[in-house]
Model the fold of this input.
Amino acid sequence: MQANRCVAGIDVHKKMLAVVVGRMQEQSLEVERAKFGTTTEELERLSGWLQARGVEEAVMESTGEYHKPVWLQLEGRFRLHLAQAHSNRGPKGRKRDFADARRMIRRFLSEDLIFSYVPDSEQRLWRRLTRTKTSMGDQRKRVQCQVEGLLEKMMIKLSSVVSDLFVSAL
Done:
């Protein structure tokens, strides 16, 4: 482990973030902790708080999609890592958010965490564009089938004389 390395561990929940900042000093880990909300204002406050403490990297653990707003707020300011929850599992019993965040820092520094792949912002945009295009094509096909079905119910056999009801005339 590198001395003077400053890392944040963020345990992400729907309405709350448990944040621990750890700094390696010789062989010990000095920590500072804080709790933040998940509103835009709170995420901006988190970003400033982390920068004021000299954080370079942040590792977060989240179930579901709750990490996304946090990731978007911190992206570009810190090196971010998304840990898979099972790789930071603690002892059985009651969940302790700050203890989980601290354990995440220790496991991150000892390279014991398993990370999820998070595409960069450009790749995320291309993925969204592709999915939207595919979804719109599927919706168009569904509407075409519904219109053709309606015409058939009204005994209008337009599809037998026209190859495509929705050909756009340019």
Summary: The first strand starts at residue 6 and ends at 12. The beta strands are 6-12, 16-25, 28-37, 57-61, 79-83, 115-116.
